[in-house]
Specification:
The chain is mainly beta. The protein is built from 2 helices and 9 strands. It starts with 6 loop residues before the first strand and ends with a strand.
Length: 130
């Protein structure tokens, strides 16, 4: 069994009370420097979860970020972007996409960051999950 990445997310559709499958999600390090890092891509599965990323892994991005001084005060700022209009349909969502910035602490060894998103066409809520 493959190990899970240290950043995962989960989307629930509040209009149906069910997982939101098929939502395109990107993850990147929101860097204060001008040097850009790769963007990771995923699509929520039938349970509304992102359990793996394409192109590379969050762990690989952390290594690149450390090597190029993207961290500030021992923390990295990340950004998840959920393509909500593509999920609900053009003109049926108030937010065409939802951006969720958050920090990870590089000093905390082997932490897992889970970001749930409760999504409706007119609102959203997010929090740090477990």
């Amino acid at each position: 069994m493959a190990s899970r990445p240290f950043i995962t997310c989960h989307v629930l559709d509040t209009t149906t009370g069910r997982p939101a499958s098929g939502i395109k999600v990107t993850l990147n390090i929101d860097s204060p420097t001008s040097t850009s890092l790769p963007t990771l891509h995923a699509t929520t599965n039938s349970d509304g979860r992102v359990t793996s990323w394409t192109d590379t892994s969050p762990e690989a991005l952390v290594e690149q970020a450390g090597a190029t001084n993207h961290a500030k005060d021992g923390r990295l700022r990340w950004k998840l972007v959920f393509q909500t209009e593509a999920y609900y349909g053009v003109g049926k969502a108030f937010y065409p996409h939802v951006e969720v910035p958050f920090f990870t602490d590089l000093n905390t060894e082997k932490s897992h960051y889970h970001v749930p998103l409760l999504l409706g066409p007119w609102s959203y809520t997010t929090y740090r999950g477990s």
